[in-house]
Amino acid sequence: MSAELHLFVLWEKARFAERRILDDLRSQAKIEVVDAREMEFRGDPAESFTAFYGPRKPLDAALKVKKCGGGRFLVVVVRDLEPSYARRLAREGKYYTANERMYDLKEKYRKWAGRRHRVHGTTDTGEFARDVFLLTGRTAAEWERGVPGGIALNIPAKASWRTVVDTVGADLGLSDCRVVLEGKYINDVFFEGRFKGRDAMVKCSSKCAWSVGNEFRLAKRMFAESPGVVPEPLAEWTSEDGRMAFTVAERVAGPSLTDLLRRGVSDGEADRFAADILNLASALKRTGILHRDLFADNLLVGADGHLRAIDWQLSIDRADYREDPWVVRNWKFRYVVFGVNRELGLGVWNDFHALGKVLALLPQTEAVVKASERLAAEERGMTFAAPPDRATWLKLRLYALSLRLQMLVKGRRHRKYAQLERRLRTITGYCRD
Predict the structure, then answer these.
(1) Paired sense of beta strands 85-89 and 95-99, if any
(2) Got the DSSP string for 98-129?
(3) Using CB atoms within 10 A as the burial measure, which of 13, 119, 214, 296 is most buried?
(4) How much of the chain exceeds pLDDT 90, in percent?
């Protein structure tokens, strides 16, 4: 292979090892140091880190600044004279194709810097092209011709997902996309747009990339089983390294059931919604899928007046239980009990129970009462529990202790006391021997 350019970034708190790293790079027989220059963020370091890493990986920007520093950093551009590629292990446990020499040097320098977060490095030419443009404002082609002039930090805010959706999405059939929601807990951004002439919603995630694909697969199974209970899944995309993904689904134009309840639901609508909920429950049972987050906000009214269940991102197959790796790493989130199931305890879910609570919000017509009775009769057999390992059990115990201390410090009159008490009751109920 012909020579190729790469770069390393030594964030502020890695610069104590700067001389050692530069000397090592210059001693490498197959490496040529093209340029090394000090740079600094123009704005808030946390926002700059978020924009630089973009949707490629989960990022707590404040923690990144704490670990790496937000001051002046060093950018080193190098040329690998004899590049070779092989499969290498990413931190998320997946393999990807990487430049062997760059990968090994990056791992070594991260050890020298004391924390792996403090050194960034590119391992393929596409990553170099993106990063060098963001860090220097000059393209990879310009760098190939020599060290360009007029170098200036070029990190644009919130540009990454727009680029991905415009390029990858266009190949799939997406067009006319616009941002409608940003910064939800496990998702980066939502777009509205058109997919092959149809109104569509695009959900993008870098924290829970696997779960976005999981949402597409399970919603597709639900749609095949019972088209009327879920918006049609239209397309999905996951990056090669598995760090970012988005899914495209039919856009449901109507309001949520929560909005309708505020306005007022007629008896006729209640009867129709009761039938929709029974259809959804039957489809869940037939497919063996557990939604885990069914409440009035996640039931939208379609153009035909019938309910559609949305937000299948954390759904599971009851017969093949799997969690998103991010959920597993974040133990407090792993056993979260969504509001509809709080009384069931941490790590315990029952969609029939949740749907029964939704029915209780509707006018209690004869059809609604009968639907509630049918769900209640089958509810016991639809419970699913995911018991924690001992380490998680211990963490939950310690979490319960911290909640007690917070309650003691804040006192009963504090506005957060009731919330802490509810959380403690859920935790201790689950930690019982």
Answers:
(1) antiparallel
(2) EEHHHHHHHHHHHHHTSSGGGEEE--SHHHHH
(3) 119
(4) 58
* Contact indicator for 82, 3 with CB cutoff of 8 Å: yes
pLDDT digits (tens, 9 = 90+) for 381-419: 999 987 666 676 777 788 889 989 999 998 888 888 888
CA distance 101 to 314: 38
CA pair distance 206, 187, nearest whole angstrom: 7
Burial class (CB in 10 A: 0-12, 13-18, 19+), 92: middle
Question: What CATH number is attached to the domain comprising 252?
Answer: 1.10.510.10
Q: Is 246 exposed, middle or buried (0-12, 13-18, 19+ CB in 10 A)?
A: buried
Is the pTM higher than 0.70?
Answer: no
What is the C-alpha to C-alpha distance for residues 77 and 328, in angstroms, rounded to an integer? 37
139: in domain: yes
* Per-residue pLDDT tens over the stretch 275-299: 999 999 999 999 999 999 899 999 9
Least confident of 28-42, 147-161, 188-202: 147-161
Alpha carbon distance 314, 188 (integer Å): 15
The half-sphere exposure of 20 on its side-chain side, counting CA atoms within 13 A, is 11
- Number of domains present in the structure of the chain: 3
Q: 32 pairs with which residues across the strands?
A: 79
- Residue 171 burial class via C-beta count within 10 angstroms: exposed 0-12, middle 13-18, buried 19 and up: exposed
- Identify the residue whose tokens are 């115990």: 397
User: Do residues 343 and 396 both lie within one domain?
Assistant: no
